[in-house]
From TrEMBL:
Keyword Hydrolase annotated: yes
Keyword Iron: no
Domain Sulfatase N-terminal: from-to ranges: 10-383
Position of the signal peptide: none
Coiled coil region boundaries: none
GO cellular component: cytoplasm
Stored Pfam families: Sulfatase
Key words of the record: Hydrolase, Metal-binding
Transmembrane segments: none
Protein name: Sulfatase
PANTHER family cross-referenced by the UniProt entry: IDURONATE 2-SULFATASE
Top-level taxonomy: Bacteria, Pseudomonadati, Pseudomonadota, Alphaproteobacteria, Hyphomicrobiales
InterPro entries given in the database record: Alkaline_phosphatase_core_sf, Sulfatase_N
Top-rank taxon, per record: Bacteria
Source organism of the structure: Alsobacter metallidurans
Length: 531
């Protein structure tokens, strides 16, 4: 008698770029993402999910290796990722998958693994090992999309990035406009990448595939096609959370002083609009277009889900939806990603697994989860044990409706602001490149920021959710700062690389201990009142 066929196991790992976790509540009267809400209703939403690094390159290196940035050390865009580190795709190949990429991973190749003059060493926008590229689309790979636009009759500009000019513009590319993009919504970068994925799936109904889909949006340029460019009125959007003046923001800490000075230039984000000197109305317009781009992503998510349901693959597919990092959108007078504020690192996470009992669908988990958890989660689901060196923990118990007895009660992230160019923040702050790092430990109530060579920060988020009042200099909070500094040190010690650390050579041969890492010692855990 033949053995019963194994259930098909397909993986759809989706990341957007620059989507902050609270984006949908910025305009509460608008239902901008019905398909994302529908996905949440069928899966589990993790409301306290944080990326452990920013910007794009470090965030994706962390997400895809399951390693903290202080372990993998690819800490800036263009910082090479050491070739010795594995990742979720290389591991998945052990289970017979051929992981494919639609989009990009912003991976900087280890130059020691190349020959002199190798073109791959001239860009950080390479493809992570273990992935097979099916369709490329990012800031450095616009040609495939633009070639199709040309076939459809569009007048493609000689300077390819000028495709993001708005209609009627005669100037060089801007990164923001309320006017419509030069292309229709059905021909946009988001729609094009979705088309390529749907074409890929057309003949693969009976395969176990592993797809990493990376939508470029809502990343700048903040220019959207109709109707998304004017979908949200400016007066319907919450205002940025910031001090009254940029001078007051700069005075809050030496890092903010230097970082805001660097941002406050006419070419920040390659735009002709100085976002720190723009009118309040223009800032709200930028935020509105950002939300429009997110609504466009949601519409294409709907196309993806409809296909899987139509072909019967929906109940065979693990779906993970997250973002690499957030977007400050003018909060604290800042734009882009980086630093220590929540808007940069608090990102969405929804996981929908086949076979989840109906009573567990729509579950909302407010425990702290981190980007390093996703690689172990995916590997466990496809039947593989995550490598012992990974820092993350599988979210499998939460997906099964369980509540683990022991789980982390904080999130950690790192931001490295070195430039290696002899200027920038290093020069402004009088620091060496290796002194340009900050670490964050964020509990429910307390948030502590430790700089390698600058004064620390401490915020009581119960009383100060906007992170405006630094308590680190107050003697009354010295014990809280010390406790959190100790927790941060313990966290880094606990998660030091252990690829060979738990292995020993004995008379009987090689022996390796493979248990989990355990938790931070109880003496450093927050009290119920303090957490």
């Amino acid at each position: 008698m033949a053995e019963p066929a194994k259930p098909r196991r397909k993986v759809l790992f989706i990341t957007t770029d620059q989507q902050r976790a609270d984006a949908l509540v910025l305009a509460p009267d608008f239902d901008l993402c019905p398909n994302l809400k529908a996905l949440a209703a069928e899966g589990v939403t993790f409301t306290r999910h944080y990326t452990c690094a920013a910007p794009c390159g470090p965030a994706r290196a962390t997400l895809l290796t399951g390693l903290y940035p202080f372990v993998h050390r690819s800490v800036r865009n263009a910082t090479p990722l050491d070739a010795r580190h594995g990742n979720v795709f290389m591991e998945a190949r052990r289970a017979g998958y051929d992981p494919v990429l639609f989009g990009y991973t912003d991976s900087a190749i280890d130059p020691r693994a190349t020959v002199p003059g190798d073109p791959r060493t001239r860009s950080f926008e390479g493809v992570l090992p273990g992935l097979r590229l099916e369709a490329a689309l990012n800031e450095a790979s616009l040609e495939p999309w633009l070639t199709d636009l040309a076939k459809r009759g569009y007048d493609v500009p000689k300077r390819l990035r000028n495709i993001y000019r708005h209609v009627g513009s005669t100037k060089v590319m801007k990164q923001f406009s309320r006017e419509a993009a030069l292309y229709r919504a059905e021909d946009s970068d988001t729609a094009w990448l979705t088309d390529k994925l749907l074409d890929f799936w057309r003949l693969r109904r009976d395969e176990d595939w592993f797809v990493h889909l990376v939508w470029y949006r809502p990343h700048p340029p903040f220019i959207a096609p109709e109707p998304y460019n004017r979908l949200v009125p400016a007066d319907a959007i919450a205002l940025p959370r910031r001090r009254e003046t940029i001078e007051q923001e700069r005075a809050a800490h030496p890092f903010l002083d230097a970082w805001l000075h660097e941002q406050n230039t006419a070419d920040y984000l390659k735009t002709q609009v100085n976002t720190q000197e723009s009118s309040a109305a223009e800032i709200q317009d930028i935020r509105a277009v950002y939300l429009g781009l997110l609504a466009e992503v949601d519409a294409n998510l709907g196309r993806v889900v409809d296909h899987l349901k139509r072909t019967g693959e929906w109940d065979e597919t693990l779906v993970v939806f997250t973002s690499d990092h957030g977007e400050l959108l003018g909060d604290h007078w800042c734009w882009g990603k980086g630093g220590f504020h929540d808007a940069s690192n608090h990102v969405p996470l929804i996981v929908r697994a086949p076979g989840m009992p109906a009573e567990h669908r729509g579950r909302v988990v407010d425990a702290f989860t981190e980007s390093v958890d996703l690689a172990p989660t995916i590997l466990e689901w496809v039947g593989l044990a995550p490598p012992a060196e990974m820092n993350g923990v599988s979210l499998g118990p939460w997906l099964r409706g369980e509540t683990p007895e022991r789980w982390r009660d904080y999130a950690f992230w790192e931001f490295d602001f070195r430039t290696l160019g002899g200027g920038g923040l290093e020069a402004a702050l009088g620091l060496t490149p290796d002194q340009c790092t900050l670490d964050v430990i964020r509990e429910r109530r307390w948030k502590y920021v430790h700089f390698t060579a600058l004064p620390p920060l401490l915020f009581d988020l119960d009383d100060d959710p906007g992170e405006f009042n630094n308590l680190a200099d107050s003697p009354a909070y010295a014990s809280e700062s010390a406790r959190l500094a100790g927790r941060l040190l313990s966290h880094r010690m606990l998660h030091a690389e252990r690829t060979l650390t738990n292995t020993k050579l004995a008379h009987a041969g090689v022996k390796t201990w493979t248990g989990d890492r355990g938790l931070v010692p109880p003496s450093f855990q927050a009290t119920a009142a303090g957490a």
